[in-house]
Amino acid sequence: MELKELKERFESLYGAGEVRFFSAAGRVNLIGEHVDYCGGKVLPAALNLRCVVAARKRKDNIVRMAATTIDLTAELDINKLDSYRNLRWGSYQAGVAFVMKEAGFDIVGCDMLVDCTVPFGSGLSSSAAIEVATALCFATFSAENGGKSAGREELAVLSQMAENSYCGVNCGIMDQFASACGKKGNAILLDCSTLQYEYAPMDFGDYELVIINSNKPHSLVDSKYNERRDECEIALELLKKELPHITCLADVTKAEFDEKSGVLSGKIYDRALHVITECERVNAAVKAMKSGDVKLFGKLLNESHYSLRDKYEVTGRELDALTQAARSFDGCIGSRMTGGGFGGCTVSLVKREKVKDFVKQVCAEYKKATGYDAICYETVISDGAFEII
Q1: In CATH terms, is domain 3-26+46-187+382-388 a member of 3.30.230.10?
Q2: N or C: which end of the chain has fewer CB within 10 A?
Q3: Is 175 among the residues known to form the active site?
C-alpha cells in the first residue's frame, strides 16, 4: 500500500494527525537451511516484500493495533503484557512489547496500523518482518521518551526472543537478523553462534533469483519445526561425549562427523548429517559468488534441497514437485525450498531472458502435479529495517 493511502487508512481509524512509518523486510534464505539454531552460518537476504507499521504515540498505557490485510484488531494494556499470548491476531506485537519492557525499554502507548506485503505462510518471514518493524517503532518511541534505544542487531535479538519465549516458536536468529540488518544488493553471511556477520554482494550475472510460492501454507508452531530442533539437540549431546570441545552442531567438521558419528543412528544421524553438510554448502556458496561461479552456486542450491528432502525431511510433496519442475526447465541451474519447510516458497536461479517462460512452465507443471496454483513474486534484494522519513 502506498504511504499516502496507508496514512489515510490510519487516520480513518485513529483520527487526523502526525503518522510515523516503520519498515522491516521479509527475507529469502539463499542457502543454509535449518542450521541457524545449530550455530551455523546462513546466507539470507532482505527483500522488497515488507511490513510497514504506521504509528502514533498516545498519552495513556494502551496500544491499539489493526491491519490492512486482516479484519482483526487488538488492544494491549502495557501493564498487562504477559496476558496476550493467545490472541487471535497480534501476539507477535504483544510479544515484542513484552520482551522489550522486560529488557528496560520505555514502552509507550500508541496506535498502530500494520501493512504487510510479505505473504503469510510463505516461508519469507512475515512474522520476523512484523516483529522487527514493531520493535523499531517501540525502540524509537522509547528513545524519544528518554528511555533505551536499540541498534538493528539488538532489534533482531529482541524480536527472536519474542517469537521464542512469547509465541512458542523455537526459531533461530536468522529471520529477524536479515529483516533488521539487510542491505540492498547483498546477502548476509551470518554466524548464528556469534552474530558476527559480513555482507556478501550477490551478482548473478545473466541469471536471476526467482521466488515461487507453493501456496501450501505452513505454520512453524503446528509443524515439525520444534521436533527437528529437539532431534538436533539429541545429536549434539551424543556427539559431545565424543567431541567435548564442541558447543553446537555447526562446530563439528565433516571429518570429525565421519569419524565419530557411530554414536548416532536413524533419524538422529540423518538430521545431524544435514546440518554438517549444509554448513559446508554455505561456505562453498560464498566462495562461488566471490569467484563468479554462478553455476556452482546453483548446484549447491540443488544439493541443499536434496538434503532437506532426504535427511531433514522438511520439504513435502508440494515443494518437491515445485523444485523438480524448476530443475527440469532448460535455463534453471538450481532450485530449492527456502524457509522452514512443510510448505512455503522455493528459490531458483534462472537465465534472465527465460524467466517468463520458466514461470509459465513451472507453474503449469506444478498445478498438474499438485492441484495448487503457484504464485511468482517479483523481488529484489533490499535494505532491512528503517523509519521511512
Answers
A1: yes
A2: C
A3: yes
